[in-house]
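USER: Study each token:
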Amino acid sequence: MSHSWVDAILAAGVVPASYVPEASVGRTDLEEFTGADPVEDPELRVHSLDGVRALAPAAVGFLDGIEQWRVVGYAGVTPIVRAYVAAAIRLRRTDRRPRTIGEDADELAITRLDRLPDAAREALERAGVRVVEISADDAGQPARALPAARIEVQKARAALERRLAERRLSGLGSDEWLVVDGVLSDSSALSAHPRVLGVVKSHGAEYFAGPELERALTLPAVRRTSVFRPKSRGARRDIYSWYLRLWPWEGNDLLYGLLRVEARAHPETVARASGISAWLTAERAPLATPDRRWDRLLYPIHDVETYLRARAPRDLLPAPGSRLPRTGT
């Protein structure tokens, strides 16, 4: 979609702005989960992958998404945000050459309509851009408005990724897997499928305490923990999960190289956990550099992000150089 709607609202009296937030580090782990029930072992233990035969799917689809947004104007203290979200699936067969088999993108405006001048609201309506509103309380407080807008961007991205993943399930071959960057537990279809995995790079949720927490966070490289069932609240679906360390954390940070894997809640998942872990460990190569999250970023996921960013609007990227005012000297 053209961003001509931005020109229209500026012409309608909105004060122009050009603020690009810091790059998103991705969606955070679910905070709705608290605690875990043991599945594989009576308590959380460390499992070696030495000598384990890695699962070797004939075909794998890798799904990821991106989000970009910037403040394009203000009506009083209420920001108007232009946001772009996109997602894609890249399929890799035995020739190791990924190809795009599905993608989607959406552009949206985020603001509070009742805080805009009539002319600006009418301009948005005529442009046909999808408008997502933040709460009245957030719109009235500049310090809260941008974090609220960021949350709406993340929701839009997550919904887009979920729709794309669920559409792919009907075409998933009997020997094909789908690896999703993020959680499965917000989708009943994804969390119940035998050949769908969620790979979580962030660790905002806490499932363990005491010795078990220490065991999880000091997991040695190329090891996994026992399979466990995160306790869920609300509408989250039942899944199995385990931690996997890709690279040594010593000398770095406790979360360095640490992933959490999600899969369907089924005995077959427990039987496959080591084979899946050995396979995912192999996906470390080649390194996903120069991405600063390379220690937790599987290369095929990095490939999807690279593809999406190459197709994203250039004007939503931070402009190089200083934000100091131009003086003409």
